[in-house]
Amino acid sequence: MAGLSNVIYFAYFFQEFALGFLTTMGVQYIAFFLTDTALIPTAVVATILLIGRIVDVIDVPIIGMIVEKSNLPWGKYRSWLFIAAPLVVVFNLLMFTDLNVSMSIKVAYLSTAYILSYVFVNFCSTSRFALLPTFTSDQDERAKLAVRRGQGATLGQALRGAVTVPLIAFLGGGNDARGYFLTVIIYGAIVIGGLYWLAYLAKDYDRPGATKGQKSPSVKEIIIQLGTNKPLLILMLSNITLLTATNILTGFGMYYFRYVVGNLMLISLYLPVTFMGGFIGNSVSQYISIKYDKKITYILGVAFWFLGMLLVYLFAGKNAVLFIAFVTVAQFGYGLANATIPAFFSDTADYGEWKTGKSVRAVNMGLLIFPIKIGVLLGGAIAAYGLAYIGFVAGTKDPVIIQNIRTMTAVLPMLVSILAAVIMYFYPLTKDKVRLLQQEIKSRVSAQLS
């Protein structure tokens, strides 16, 4: 059988690049829009975001079950891209609309839009991740697709970081609400284009009625399979731990530049440079994974992350150049490890089907989102409580507190990353074992059809 075409690899790169344009709006810009444009009190904004993020975590497995048990007319997974992508845009437009209504109505519609936008983002993400093992069972091709996803994410982050604020200001012409709304329209067109293109290319792989006649697993069977899938549980725990480490660094980043370096504006240089370190790590990852194994690649990536943060602790001090250089080393390591994650999840989906005889691929692949969301929650909380623990107050000039910020910025992400590597050491699936269980699954299917 011929390998995947370069068009599919590029489309898988582009869908990640594209969807990030709206997920970024809901992560990085929504709070500022709500407080400074919609003029909603800060405490209310915090409540809106907290409730939204809790729902965002809870609905991931539920959406996975819905997608898994569905059998829609354009294919099991790609159908949801056609349905959900426009709805992501619609609710993002509503989320960045400042209507002239009472405060209670404004809070109600903005809260609803925020929650529903991420519900449909999760439908898109569950489906696009489930397409990865649908496109191919070859482990090297899966690794390459996973790398393309990581490259799309890092390039998108760098580009969006450079253009979003200037674009909002340009399109708004002094009216921030108008600028946000028009920016979402442009970004929404990119999102729909990227996801619809992927769905179109998947038509020969995710065929309508392919699962017709097959009994869908019950909710109980899905829960049992996921709960007894040891490789999946180890993978998720390690990935949550690594993402917690990266989000601790994110949580301290602005404080480091404002109080340790003394120049907050340098963060505009820091972000694109360090993101490019992640892009290079993503690019290198596929070659190491193909030659050796994903597990080796992941642990090597964590080792580079640890090294980068250790160098920050030992040598960076107040030197912004050294800090950026060493964090770039760490982000190279994160990119190396992160690029393997979708391929890991694909293998654990095969393992679950091999063990139980039933496929819950959509639920399994949908859980790829779960560590990201938990990592954001835990990493952000650790950074915030860390600042509270050392007695931080805005505008501080206390050298002890500033030194503690410098120390925690490096040490906490470094220590947490060690745990991620230790957990991954126990991951049991190798290339050879996955090939064997894939062959056994194919044999079972052939026997059932004969």
Automatic annotation (TrEMBL):
Superkingdom per UniProt: Bacteria
Leader sequence residues: none
Q: What GO terms are given for molecular function?
A: symporter activity
Q: Where are the bilayer-spanning segments?
A: 7-32, 38-67, 79-96, 108-131, 152-173, 179-202, 232-257, 263-284, 296-316, 322-345, 366-390, 410-427
Database matches in InterPro entries: MFS_2, MFS_trans_sf, Na/Gal_symport
GO cellular component terms, semicolon-separated: plasma membrane
Arranged from A to Z, the UniProt key words for this protein are:
Membrane, Transmembrane, Transmembrane helix
Give the GO terms filed under biological process for this record.
carbohydrate transport; sodium ion transport
Record's protein name: Isoprimeverose transporter
